[in-house]
Amino acid sequence: MTTPTTQSPLEIPGFTHLYSGKVRDLYVPEGRDDQLLLVASDRISAFDFILDPPIPDKGAVLTQLSLWWFEQLADIVPNHVVSVEVPDVVAGRAVLVQRLEMVPVECVARAYLTGGGLREYVADGTVSGLALPAGLRDGDKFDVPIFTASTKAPVGQHDEPMPFEAVEAEVGVARAAELRDLTTRILARGNEIAAERGILIADTKVEFGVDELGRLVLADEVLTPDSSRFWPADQWEPGHTQPSFDKEFVREWLLSPGSGWSKSSGEAPPALPAEVVERTRAKYVEAYERLTGHTF
Ligand code: ATP
Ligand code: MG
User: ipTM of this model?
Assistant: First the structure.
């Protein structure tokens, strides 16, 4: 497998490096093939590029926020967490998890129309092949969250939308229904909780694995600013792009004339200015603090 980062993974005594994704580094504990140490780095990705420089504390925010959500969702779905006792070098940003057979589908649920869903809707009147009523605007809320899966592309390639029939073909009819049900319930529950804290979760991506008994287990990260779009509820106003707590901020800078970068160029984006790094860090920390009620 490729290691798509210039930072080489840490040497962690007692653990063997297995794989590095865009954000996380995976290690196998010696003598425990059934577990993984999942270490969240401070790397930030946008448009499938890993950006430079990293965002200080981002790995810890993502890890702590996911742990908090896993607990809030425990009655909906079991999760992969085994222990938060981890080596000091990765304290706060790593978790020991059950090593699962990952389901080869990125499970996306959308509560509001925006982003890639909006682009498809404008072009075809559908989102992930689902026909929707005419006249919806950027930021409009769906009656119920919809499930819009995508393929899990290898590092360096882009995820492609996956119509529900394709999910059924990939994992079977019953399992596809289970994925859809769990994913939309996670987003619905997330929104119930976030609403009390003044945040709307427009959409989110989750990943499931299958344990040794064949059960679906929630893995990876959940309801973080990396995997979700968080909007301040008091500024929600359909009809244009919503202000957000997540990396839309970085994406907006990259797409602005100021960055000098063109998405269609295929070239790596420029380094983020210090101000964008600091404001992005502040957004991640604010999302964590508002949702959990804890001080970071
Ligand atoms: P994506 O953008 O889709 O999240 P990524 O390359 O950013 O992809 P990372 O989050 O950096 O992925 O890396 C985490 C990797 O660990 C993913 O490949 C994910 O599927 C995998 N993973 C997460 N939890 C588990 C688990 N419990 N067992 C096995 N693999 C897992
Ligand atoms: Mg990931």
Answer: 0.95
